[in-house]
Structures are given as C-alpha cells and as structure tokens.
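Help wanted!
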Amino acid sequence: KEGLDTETIGKSVHCFSEVDSTNNYAKTLAQKGCDDGTVVLAERQTQGRGRLGRSWDSTDKKGIWMSIVLRPAVGLEDVQIITLAASVAVASALKKAMDVNAGIKWPNDIVLDGKKVCGILTEMSMEMERVNYLVLGIGMNFSQQESEFPKEIRDRATSLGIYLKEKHGLDISGFRRSHLVKTILSELEEVYDTIKEGKVGVIIEEWKKYSVTLGKEVLINYKEEQYIGTAQDIDQNGRLIVRLSDGTVREVLSGEVSVRGL
Ligand code: BT5
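Answered by r_m:
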C-alpha cells in the first residue's frame, strides 16, 4: 500500500502468494461485506479464469493478477461501461507508468501490436435490479518470456517484457511491477469517479482514443451464429455497433459474443 495515492480503490489490499482465482477470493470478501475498492492480489493463480468459461494462464509469478471489488450505485445497464472504463484505466496506466502505447480491442482486451497483454473479467452480483457488487479481474502479463506461454496462445499473447525488449530494446527489470499496479489503481479511481459523476460520455470518448476495433472488420460469434461486419461505433451503454454487409446494423453486448479482428 506504500505510495498509493487513492481514497477508495486499494484502501484495503489483500496479497497472496497463491489462490485459485483472485476473482473468487474477491467475491468471498464482497459477500462478507468488504469495502468498495477492496483489492486482491496474488503472485500466481491455479485456476485463473477468462470470460465465457475460458481459462486464463496465470500459474507463473511473472504477471499482475488482481481483482477489485466495486460497489457502484448503478443498474445492470451501466456495468458494461464500468468494464470499458477499467480498460481505459489500464491503457492510460501503461502510458503513464511505462510510456507504453497500448490499444483496446473491444470490449476490453489490452493489446500491444495486436497481441494480448492484458484481459479483464467483470463478474457481478445483482440485488433488486441494482448492482450489489462487481468484481473487476485484471490479468496483465508482465515479465514472461515467449517460451513461458502455453503453446496454443504464443502467437496471440505477449508480455510487457517481450514488447519492451523488441520495440525499444529495454529490459523489464528496469521497471517495477508494484509501480504499475499503483498506477492502475489510481487510474481506476479516476474513471470510477468519472462514472459516479455520471459522465459516461467522457469514458466513451477516452475508450475510442485507445480503440483498435472501430472502423475494422470483425467476426462475431454469437451462440451458434457467426457473422462478419464493420465495427462502427460504441453506444452510451458500451455496446458495439456493427454494420453487416447487407446493411443491417447490430448492437452487440460483450457478455454474449467473441469478436475477432479480420
Ligand atoms: C479475459 O478473458 O481476457 C479475462 C482475463 C481475466 C484474468 C484475470 S487475472 C485476475 C482475475 N482472476 C481471474 O481468475 N481472472 C481475472 P477472455 O476474453 O475470455 O480471454 C481468454 C483467452 O485469452 C483464452 O481463451 C486464451 O486464448 C487467452 N489467454 C489465456 N491466458 C492468457 C494470457 N496469460 N495472456 C494472453 N492471453 C491469454
């Protein structure tokens, strides 16, 4: 917690050498009534999770695996915006802490030259149509070498270490992981405050600045269906607006699809 300049996010921090998933641990804390902004960090996860039942490779100690419990006074329709806001916070923290220019692939993959360096998993609990709590899980590859990723994801995944070496000839050992964590938490607090002030438009504009999806052709997988279109915009609820080749327009929600750039 040393040097953390936030008021809500990270007021309480729980660190572990190993957990199954920081999201699971954070959920347990949330159910026991922990504070808004409680953070859970682990050196390694034995069962890191991605979206839609996918797994997240996080068994080594070279990443940032963390979850944040949020208790925003919002309804279901605002949850997507909070997830987009989290990706904005991560991208801007990478710029501030490490001078790295990352992109955001809708909805919330953080990419470096097209390869995924960070993923975000939002899980929630609803009560009477309001959000009871949200758990924002952030997984950031920090110092892994290419050979340390599972074979299946080697061509799609990268770490900050790999990127800095290839792009700038810099060694990751010159950067502190804790500094990046603190910067992410302080950027998160900033976007969280923006949302509390109701300024959703500001988040959307910020998100668009980092977007590598808008204007591109995308392949959408929705249940058994697949379709191709051009990602045109995102709306005020964070849905992706896709124009199909026959001219029809679809609004896509992140919980139900996977999107691939073509
Ligand atoms: C995500 O899912 O990108 C969300 C990942 C969230 C991980 C954090 S870590 C802390 C917290 N605790 C958890 O248990 N989870 C959160 P999705 O969009 O579904 O992407 C998953 C896909 O990314 C996998 O199917 C792989 O293809 C790929 N992948 C898995 N591990 C990866 C890694 N370390 N780096 C890059 N890509 C990876």
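OP: Thanks! One thing I noticed: The mean pLDDT is 93.
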